[in-house]
Fold:
Amino acid sequence: MKLPPELLLLLSVLQPATAIPIDSRTPSLTQRSASFRALHGLTHLSNDYSNPESFSHPTKFFHESTFSGHYDGRFASTELPHHTRLFHLRLLLKAYMDTMDRIGVRSWLMHGCLLGWWWNGRIMPWDNDIDLMVDERGMSELGNWWNMSVHHFSAQDLGVQDALEADTVVLDTRAEDERLGKRTMHQEVLDTGKKYLLEVNPHYTNTSTEDRENRIDARWIDTATGLFIDITTVHVQPPSSPSTSTSSSHTTLYTKDHHTYLTPQIFPLRTSVFENITVHIPFAYESLLLDEYGPKAITSRVYRKFRFDEERREWLRVDEFGEEVAEEDEEVVMERLRAARERMDYLERVGERQRLGLSRFGDAP
Structure:
């Protein structure tokens, strides 16, 4: 009898290995992560494209890809075109929210996604990822019971068929290649569905903000594209001393990346819609956005090379004169990206990188 890859994956990771403690105060942690070899049958890749940081960052648990910090290199070898990425990010969020609601873990939008929700209920066109939070009880549930679990969703579960039918009229007005490209994306999901891996960082039990390598407590990973959702835990801040504790009944909350909140800012959670998906958002969302991004983030209708169109309720790419710019064909953009990477790889192989003072392609300037 041939076991399914999901069961083989679980069997391969059930024998724990001790993770490296952050410091002497950190308790012994159990690691149940899957190496690239253990993911055989779940990943479609034959090579691992994860960033080799084991020596430079020995205590870091999650390792992003060599080509982008927004992909898992065990499941992706290259970036996706813009519209393709947005399509899969929506499915990623839909599957995640449905799963969290089903298992009883409350999770809510934060950071850039919350800002996108505020403007028009959509992912910002310049965003590459999705950020969500859970409370301590929820993360404990994920770590103790759901770590390394694989979740399969059919096209019907994800609403792909409904979306395709609803978009038929709109698609007929577009270019043929764009129509076929979108139908191809939908058809792949219709044929095979999607599988998502929930991977929990064993260092989630270390609540210290000094643990700079492990600020992400868990990830919800698309095994077909390598895209993921970063999941962070909001912790209760213990009072420093009785004399300095506030008389207010409000509890201070914090995350390992140094964000702090008061309980009324987060709870009770509100229910809303983001990318046509039912989601949860913090109670005092506007004050949180003002604290994190400032007033211009929720008032300025121009950002980078984008302008917000009130009538269309959409961020549009504009040129230096403020005119809307037609988006380039995605295949042309990706071909240019691949060519640039090949050139950089060649330069590295022949030793030109250091001589020319070039940074690795994709690194921030």
